[in-house]
């Protein structure tokens, strides 16, 4: 089975530690990352489907705007050199992270509410 994931989740899920979310949301993420292959999609994905902030197919979080999430997706795909519709495995995604992680952290993680969950103290 393939997970269907949007751009920024290709990067962010590599740092998921099973905390910072509701129990139901954590279970969903574990089921997503257990899949060997990932089909890259545009817009809401399998993670978003269980998110309480997904309203009318858009992110309604107070911390993020839908425009910001879409920009993160676009930038993640650019940095990873992937396009929507491509099928990849976690190994390929992880292999590309070292080259882009510092840029990603500076651009997106510094003001993210989950940074302590992902990286401890930053």
Overview of the molecule:
It comes from Candidatus Methanoperedens nitratireducens. 47% of the residues lie in helices and 12% in strands. With 122 residues, the protein is α+β, with helices and mostly antiparallel strands. The chain has one domain. The strands form two sheets. It has a three-stranded mixed beta sheet. Strands 3-4 form a two-stranded antiparallel sheet. The mean pLDDT is 91.
Task: Provide the fold topology.
Blueprint: E1 2-5, H1 7-12, H2 23-33, E2 37-40, E3 54-55, E4 58-59, H3 66-80, E5 87-89, H4 90-109, H5 115-119
Parallel strand pairs: 1-2
Antiparallel strand pairs: 2-5, 3-4
Shape: globular
Q: What's the helix-strand series?
A: EHHEEEHEHH
* Multimer state: single chain
Low-confidence stretches: none
Task: Supply the number of helical segments.
Answer: 5
Beta strand %? 5-15%
**Order of strands in the sheet with the most strands?**
1-2-5
Estimate nothing, just give the exact number of structural domains. Answer: 1
Number of strands: 5
Overall helicity: 40-55%
Q: Strand pairing plus helix content: what structural class?
A: alpha+beta
Rg (C-alpha, Å):
13 Å
- Ends: how far apart? 35 Å
Pfam families: DUF1284
Protein name: DUF1284 domain-containing protein
Organism: Candidatus Methanoperedens nitratireducens
